[in-house]
Amino acid sequence: MRNNLCILQSMQPFHTMEAADLYDLFLSDNDNIDNQYCSLDIDDFQKLVIEFIRNKDIKDGTSLCFQVFCKYMSHSIHQKTFQCEYPELSIVLKGIQHLQKALKFSSSLFFSYLIEEFVTLPVEILWWLHKNDIIYFVPYCYHSKFVSLPESLLTYIAAKKQHSIFIYNEIVPDLIAELLRHAHTPTRLFHLPYHTEWKSYCRTVLNKMVDSVLDVIFCNRSESFLNFFCYIQNLDVLLPRALVKDFFKTILKKLMSYNIDEFDVYSAYTYQELWKSNRISSNLFITLKEIFIKHCIFQDIIDIIEDLDGKVNWKYTLVAVAVCVKESPSGSDDAKDVISQLLQQYLKKPKFCSFIKCLLFVRQTCMEENFKMDYPAWYSLTFGSRSNFKRKCSEAKFKLLISALIELVQYESDDYLKVQLSLSLDAPLMCNYLVHNYKSLCKARLNELDKSPSVSYWSTT
Questions:
Q1: Helix/strand/coil for 56
Q2: Which of 289, 229, 237, 269 is nearest to 361 (CA)?
Q3: Is 261 exposed, middle or buried (0-12, 13-18, 19+ CB in 10 A)?
Q4: Looking at beta carbons, which pairs linking 386-393 to residues 24 or more positions away fall under 8 Å?
Q5: Residue 194: which region, alpha, beta or left (left: phi > 0; alpha: psi -120 to 50)?
Q6: Burial class (CB in 10 A: 0-12, 13-18, 19+), 255
Q7: Other CB atoms within 10 A of residue 60 CB
Q8: Where are the domains of the chain?
Q9: For 382-401, what is the HEC assignment?
Q10: Which of 86, 107, 311, 319, CA to CA, is 20 to 30 A from 24?
Q11: What separation in angstroms does the CA of 214 have from each of 219, 246, 281?
Q12: Where is the Fanconi anaemia group A protein N-terminal domain (predicted)?
């Protein structure tokens, strides 16, 4: 108690001053008082907080709280390791909360002390300060110019450090939720100073975190995969569901727009049989599963293709189709609807891109085991003897269909050629010669392929 009395005695000369002349008695430029704060034990701190609240002449206790906070936490903060239980930390928090209620604690002043004392704060401390309404996560990171935050968060997530106070399973979703809240909430709904700057900062942080994960996929590296997306799945209990979906859709767009010259639509037509969901890397599958298992749907793939004017990487686009059909609760039904719409679009306004997208999507969908229809059945039900196509569509529309199929013969694999050779087309009487010509081309192409190796549609490995 001697230190407590000493500090109170050092205040006595100030008590005779007029209230208007009082300044913060405990700013850090008073080194003597700061040193005395550092020598306080936790009991002295509690008693001194009570005295600060009672004494009307004392305007602020921020420096007291900061110095005692540093006494117990600075070593761990500098070392970035938290191995103790820090029983004093809860008492420091209660002192801060009591001073906040008495309007004798300044978050901005505490922030300035943090900036002066520490270059950066560990993720655990950022969360603790934010959770307890002392210093908020995003404003601190932005104004302290915390440029290495993406790396710090990913390192913390990968380490999976468990602690009784700094709770891993709360820290990760809480901090990511704050980044998402600022990054994706429309500016018109956020009436705060610096919101535009914070929004840009948070988007940059999230983009760097996502890019670091996608780089492992794009480079096909075998290193362990850091799946932090799983912590975002249930953030729709804290954030608007549309906001969470927007994040996952952004990841999907990054995948589909990566290196768009790698596979064009015709290459995809030839090689798509290699992109079944059970053939892709586990890292890519896990990422797409996180995207589709709850938030994104098949229509989002179509929307992104349209947003990008069809300039997509067709490998990743069709892989997305495959995983969507496999993992999305509505994937199979959505795929049927989209495929039907694309075919109708082609027949109404003949654009070859609509037809080829229709075939790409239906073939990719039919490759997935949980889709309850194979490609021969779809082909027969849509164009063949089971379709009644000639009654539903005019001779002109049948000619459009045949012209598109003929255009694609040169890109067909032998398995698809055999399917389309074996099944009849429901053609108008005057168009039987077109069917004959088409099948002749298929036979010629099949003879060419017999002389060279090709991908097998029926392979399951």
A1: coil
A2: 269
A3: exposed
A4: 387/426, 388/426, 389/425, 389/426, 389/427, 390/426, 390/427, 390/428, 393/347
A5: left
A6: buried
A7: 20
A8: 1-119, 135-239, 267-373, 382-461
A9: HCCCCCCHHHHCCHHHHHHH
A10: 86
A11: 8, 17, 12
A12: 123-450
Q: Which of 18, 15, 165 has the alpha carbon at shortest distance from 87? A: 165
Distance CA 28, CA 240 (A): 42
Q: Which residue has the tokens 């997306």?
A: 229
Q: Rounded to 5 degrees, what are φ and ψ at 377? A: -65, -45
Q: What DSSP designation does 264 have? A: -
Structure-token match 């090689």, residue found: 271
d(CA 204, CA 454): 44
Residue linked to tokens 């901090």: 175
Which pLDDT value is given to residue 191? 56
| Least trusted range by pLDDT, from 144-148, 200-204, 217-221 | 217-221
Own/partner contacts of 260-268, CB < 8 Å, gap of 24 or more, are 260/308, 260/311, 260/312, 260/313, 262/313, 262/315, 263/313, 263/314, 263/315, 264/314, 265/310, 265/314, 265/353, 265/356, 265/357, 265/360, 266/411, 267/314, 268/314, 268/315, 268/317, 268/318, 268/360
Ranges 61-70, 118-127, 297-306, 338-347: which has the least confidence: 338-347
Query: Among all chains, which residue has been given the structure tokens 């080829």?
Result: 356
To 5 degrees, how large is the angle CA 150–CA 156–CA 157?
Answer: 90
Residue with tokens 């549609």: 457
CA 155, 157, 158, 160: dihedral to nearest 10 degrees?
120
How many angstroms separate the CA atoms of 76 and 445, rounded?
71
pTM above 0.70, yes or no: yes
Q: Rounded distance, CA 461 to CA 80, Å?
A: 47
Separation CA 169–CA 26 (nearest Å):
37
Which residue reads 């191995």 in tokens?
83
In whole angstroms, give the CA distance from residue 458 to residue 367.
9
Provide long-range contacts, Cβ within 8 A and 24+ apart, for 89-92: 89/128, 89/165, 91/42, 91/45, 91/46, 92/42, 92/45, 92/65, 92/68
Query: pLDDT tens-digit profile of 166-193?
Result: 999 999 999 999 999 999 876 555 556 6
Which amino acid is residue 432, in one-letter code? N
